[in-house]
Amino acid sequence: MDFLVKLAEGFIGIFNAGGENLMGLVTGILPTLIVLLTFVNALVAMIGEERVTNFARMCTKNIILRYSIFPLLSVFFLTNPMCYSFGRFLDEKQKPAFYDSAVSLVHPITGLFPHANAGELFVWTGISSGLTTLGLSIMPLAVRYFIVGMIVILIKGIVTEMLTKAMWKKSDATATNQ
């Protein structure tokens, strides 16, 4: 009988812990997310969608900007998964590399800009909970995580673009020979 009681208490305990976690989010990060989303949408409206589009096209001309600033802007302004639609500003051969860069940024950006990928927020809060438990600021970790993420997306973007061009060239040569 004690076994069944402990099993039932453990079972409901899981849901109680989940409810406590949810309430922590509702009183903690969710208001911040709502304000951030409102700010980003207002900023785009104030700047103007056409200006944002022109700036995006300018960023895609340079390989460094294409796989650093451009994915950052797309993830920051459009959030995951809408950020991948920024690929429309790129040539077909650059789209796989842009996707690789953008998808690799959606986690590292979450510590500084949680609105960018709400789905990754639970991962970030899990990672940073050790620091908050100790009463330490999570910002140094968030900044370092973001910087490393930016370096990684740049490298991945450049390498993926080179691989894509090589595969495209091989595919074109094979099609020509047939």
From TrEMBL:
Record bears the keyword Transmembrane helix: yes
Keyword annotations from UniProtKB, A to Z: Membrane, Transmembrane, Transmembrane helix
Listed Pfam families: EII-GUT (PF03608)
Keyword Transmembrane recorded: yes
Stretches that traverse the bilayer: 22-44, 64-87, 138-159
Gene Ontology cellular component annotations, sorted alphabetically: membrane
An example Gene Ontology biological process: phosphoenolpyruvate-dependent sugar phosphotransferase system
Protein name per Swiss-Prot or TrEMBL: PTS glucitol/sorbitol transporter subunit IIC
Species whose genome carries this gene: Vagococcus allomyrinae
Lineage: Bacteria, Bacillati, Bacillota, Bacilli, Lactobacillales
